[in-house]
TrEMBL record:
This protein's name: ABC transporter ATP-binding protein
Calcium listed as a keyword: no
SMART domains, alphabetized: AAA (SM00382)
Pfam family, one: ABC_tran
High-level lineage: Bacteria, Bacillati, Bacillota, Bacilli, Bacillales
Residue span, ABC transmembrane type-1 domain: 28-306
Membrane topology: Multi-pass membrane protein
Location in the cell: Cell membrane
Gene3D superfamilies assigned: ABC transporter type 1, transmembrane domain, P-loop containing nucleotide triphosphate hydrolases
Amino acid sequence: MEKTKPRLWPVYKWSLSYLRPYRRMLSLVLLFVTLMTIGELAIPKFIQYFVDTILPSGDRMKFLMTTGLLAGIIVCIVLATLAQNTLRRQLQEKSSRDVQLSIFEHIRKLGFSYYEKTPAGQLLSLMNTEVAALQELYRQSFPLLLENLIFSVVSLVYMAFTNVKLTLIVLPCLLFYFLFGPKLERKASLNAKLLSQNRIDENQKIYESISALRDIRASSSESWDFERFLARVRRFNQSMIWTYWYNHLRGTNRRLIYYAGGLFIIMYGYSLFRSNSLSAGALMAFILYFFVTMQKLTAVITNITEQKILIFQAEKLYSFLQITPAVAECDDPVIVDNIRGEIRFRDVTFSYVKGNRVLKHINLLIKPGEHVAIIGASGQGKSTILKLIGRFYDPGEGEILLDGIPLKHMSLASIRRGCGYVFQDTYLTGGSVKENIRFGRPEATDQEVIAAAKAAYAHDFIVNLSDGYDTIVGERAHTLSGGQKQRISIARMIIRNPAVVLLDEATSALDTVSEIEVQKALETLLQGRTVIAVAHRLSTIENFDRIIVLDQGEIAESGNYEQLASQRGLLYQMAGGNRG
């Protein structure tokens, strides 16, 4: 807690910075809120005038004029309220949208290295929980704070003009509230947050129990599972009890101050009335001002407490945005439209963890159009080489050049446009087959999509799906086999038309039949392109121009399949193992 407190103010300023682009809109909102407040607080003054002047005189003309003026003020209040609500809603939603987009953009900037170290659940929690908390600041807490503050200030001015002596009674009421109110508000807010988390835990346990019902029954674990569920229910019920307890307690504290202060005002106001220092109408107006002002002032304190809780959550977002990307584009990057595909490693050394080198002094030249395979035991840095080519990471020492340009000097868009990946695990969206292929180049026409599918040997199975190219593949594409998903991925790469293709064990997870189908699709994709493939099965790379064998992070062997096999070295041993 002590470490967090000094950060609250910068986090709060950062949170409100998303309102800065909408300063004019915020100013109009405040203007309309002020007009509403002045109008609403003028009504007790009309009551005072009615009681003190109109009723004793019985002047019908004054009554009609006063009533007409009051009706006009009410119309103005309604119009100002309508304008304020419209502008406020736009302000809230635009700022809420901006913070969500800024977090999403930063997630994308952090890149591959951050994704590999950070669980997806943590990022989802950041977007769903912390972003939602910050959006609550814009949608509810901050606007209400401004409204209540403006109302309280204007109301105190009205009260002071009505009677200064009675106004001074408000001060000890507020001081008494400050002794207990903020603590109770904070306890209530923290318990409400705990209640929300316990509700999530209970619902999660219900989901787990239903999902695992077959296994639970098969292993006769009903009692064990029920006890775990009961523990979640107890925690939820306990937090519910404490939440309601503190909610009632803070409400009681407020009402005690309202009523005690109101009682003192009535007693002191009566003595002022008896001494002709205060009129009956003024006393009535002041009592109305007192109760509404105390409600607003205590709401301000409640609001500040709730905002502190939100800012504690927002600090995670603030800290997240301070993370600098491990790979950043230079200030004036080189933009290359036509990549030829020459790749050069110059004395490249790389470590994921300091002191544990994965690659050591790699020197390698891959010519445009050359097909190069990288093999080796697990953990030798095969996939790391592909990541470095795509600039998912930067080497610790040395440099990598694409068409003679250091990757650090080239724009990331040029690198990603010129290099295409086919991974072992294919990502397909929940949309249609056509959309998944077009993912490689969104502006592609339907004819280009079909042509790419045919080139990837995917057209025949696609047209036999329930809705052909418009078939929805569903979440994680469970309706498609591994080979079908991989061929859609290859069609996506064909339509994208990259100069460099990086294959990361693209067929290792497929059965023999699927592998043959995917290999035919790959032959189409790889024609005329620079290819670097991480291979698991040597049969898939026998015809490659060159094979690089990695051992202990270094290039141990280099040559075509026949050359390396005749040397009876590492590749020969691996081939013998495969045959065995």
